[in-house]
Fold:
Amino acid sequence: MVKAQPQSRPYCDRPSSKNQPAAELTTSLEDAELTRSVLHRSAASLAIDCGEVQAAERLITRALAGNPPQVIASELKDLFIQINLPQSCERRGLSLAQLTP
Structure:
Protein backbone atom coordinates (compact mmCIF):
# COMPACT_ATOMS: atom_id res chain seq x y z
CA MET A 1 0.00 0.00 0.00
CA VAL A 2 1.24 3.48 -0.87
CA LYS A 3 1.41 5.78 2.14
CA ALA A 4 1.75 9.52 2.31
CA GLN A 5 5.34 10.68 2.41
CA PRO A 6 6.16 12.67 5.59
CA GLN A 7 7.59 15.62 3.64
CA SER A 8 4.40 15.92 1.59
CA ARG A 9 2.01 15.69 4.55
CA PRO A 10 1.40 19.49 4.85
CA TYR A 11 0.24 19.59 1.23
CA CYS A 12 -1.92 16.48 1.53
CA ASP A 13 -4.18 18.03 4.14
CA ARG A 14 -5.53 20.39 1.50
CA PRO A 15 -8.30 19.05 -0.74
CA SER A 16 -6.04 17.59 -3.44
CA SER A 17 -3.38 19.86 -4.76
CA LYS A 18 -4.05 22.52 -7.36
CA ASN A 19 -2.23 20.38 -9.90
CA GLN A 20 -5.06 17.86 -10.17
CA PRO A 21 -7.74 20.37 -11.21
CA ALA A 22 -5.25 21.99 -13.59
CA ALA A 23 -4.53 18.60 -15.13
CA GLU A 24 -8.24 17.93 -15.55
CA LEU A 25 -8.75 21.28 -17.30
CA THR A 26 -6.25 20.30 -19.96
CA THR A 27 -7.81 16.88 -20.68
CA SER A 28 -9.47 18.10 -23.88
CA LEU A 29 -6.63 20.28 -25.13
CA GLU A 30 -5.07 18.18 -27.86
CA ASP A 31 -2.88 21.08 -28.96
CA ALA A 32 -1.31 21.26 -25.52
CA GLU A 33 -0.31 17.60 -25.21
CA LEU A 34 3.06 18.22 -23.55
CA THR A 35 1.52 20.54 -20.95
CA ARG A 36 -1.37 18.14 -20.39
CA SER A 37 0.93 15.16 -19.96
CA VAL A 38 3.30 16.94 -17.59
CA LEU A 39 0.46 18.29 -15.45
CA HIS A 40 -1.12 14.84 -15.20
CA ARG A 41 2.22 13.25 -14.33
CA SER A 42 2.93 15.85 -11.65
CA ALA A 43 -0.55 15.61 -10.18
CA ALA A 44 -0.31 11.79 -10.14
CA SER A 45 3.04 11.95 -8.39
CA LEU A 46 1.64 14.30 -5.75
CA ALA A 47 -1.41 12.08 -5.31
CA ILE A 48 0.89 9.09 -4.72
CA ASP A 49 2.89 11.08 -2.17
CA CYS A 50 -0.39 11.88 -0.41
CA GLY A 51 -1.57 8.27 -0.45
CA GLU A 52 -4.38 8.99 -2.92
CA VAL A 53 -3.79 5.93 -5.07
CA GLN A 54 -7.10 5.93 -6.95
CA ALA A 55 -6.71 9.58 -7.90
CA ALA A 56 -3.17 8.85 -9.11
CA GLU A 57 -4.33 5.90 -11.22
CA ARG A 58 -7.08 8.03 -12.77
CA LEU A 59 -4.61 10.79 -13.65
CA ILE A 60 -2.10 8.33 -15.09
CA THR A 61 -4.67 6.62 -17.30
CA ARG A 62 -6.00 9.97 -18.55
CA ALA A 63 -2.50 11.08 -19.43
CA LEU A 64 -1.69 7.82 -21.23
CA ALA A 65 -5.01 7.98 -23.11
CA GLY A 66 -3.67 11.04 -24.90
CA ASN A 67 -0.49 11.09 -26.90
CA PRO A 68 2.22 11.97 -24.36
CA PRO A 69 5.85 12.28 -25.45
CA GLN A 70 7.67 8.97 -24.98
CA VAL A 71 9.72 10.13 -21.99
CA ILE A 72 6.59 11.32 -20.17
CA ALA A 73 4.73 8.12 -21.09
CA SER A 74 7.59 6.08 -19.60
CA GLU A 75 7.47 8.11 -16.38
CA LEU A 76 3.69 7.65 -16.17
CA LYS A 77 4.09 3.89 -16.61
CA ASP A 78 6.75 3.87 -13.89
CA LEU A 79 4.34 5.64 -11.54
CA PHE A 80 1.65 3.07 -12.36
CA ILE A 81 4.07 0.25 -11.56
CA GLN A 82 5.11 1.99 -8.33
CA ILE A 83 1.47 1.97 -7.24
CA ASN A 84 0.50 -1.51 -8.39
CA LEU A 85 3.57 -3.74 -8.07
CA PRO A 86 3.50 -4.01 -4.26
CA GLN A 87 -0.20 -4.96 -4.29
CA SER A 88 0.31 -7.44 -7.10
CA CYS A 89 3.18 -9.12 -5.25
CA GLU A 90 1.16 -9.23 -2.04
CA ARG A 91 -1.74 -10.98 -3.80
CA ARG A 92 0.69 -13.63 -5.05
CA GLY A 93 2.38 -14.08 -1.69
CA LEU A 94 5.64 -12.55 -2.88
CA SER A 95 7.76 -9.76 -1.53
CA LEU A 96 9.53 -7.18 -3.65
CA ALA A 97 12.83 -8.44 -2.22
CA GLN A 98 12.20 -11.80 -3.89
CA LEU A 99 11.99 -10.12 -7.29
CA THR A 100 15.32 -8.32 -7.10
CA PRO A 101 18.63 -10.15 -7.60
Remarks:
- The chain has a mean pLDDT of 80.
- Residues 6-99 form one domain.
- Helices lie at 9-12, 19-25, 33-49, 53-65, 70-91, 96-99.
